[in-house]
Amino acid sequence: MVRSLKKCGELTYLGTGISENSMMHLILIHISKMAVIIVLCLLINTPLTGYAKEPLLAKEYQAKVALIYNFAKFVEWPDDTFSDDKSPLVLGVLGPFAFKDELNKISAKKIGGRPIKIRYFSSMSDYRQCQILCCNLDDFLQFSVNQTHRLEKQHVLTVGDNDGFGKAGGILSLILKDGHLAFKVNIDSARKANLSISANALRLATAIIGKGK
Asked: Does the pTM exceed 0.70?
């Protein structure tokens, strides 16, 4: 049981130097993170079968958008990624991404306290800086070396809807496995982009690509 002392009008947790208000804030953050882990677990353990073709596709897209949104909560971007504390987290969509319309539904939400802004790029020539970039494998394979380095320097979390996306160097791959939604993470690509991904999220991945060294 944690003992406490009165100090400067605040309750201080003995041996930690942390005030009661700060400790409660940490507890709430922990509870919030656990809630997101539960959501991720539900997403990857709920079967996407037993539906007509069109409703199944819609359900799959909704689940994938929910996974992207919740996974991003476990990603830490470097301090120099954003110009200030009020800057939005920009989610870019390149080309004819399969469920780009579904992504609009999270534009009213926040990640890490930052509002989400959706941007659409018809090609990489239209690309502007973002923190998350969703793109097809075919488009990703067309990136030049300079374009890939640009995404790494801008700390972009690349997301693809294909099993081969991670092997090609993309960071987050959304896949279907045995009728369930799953994801793979290329930890080496995340490291090159200087992105830190929580171990809690990585434990839920179907596969980790690379060694992260």
From this structure: yes
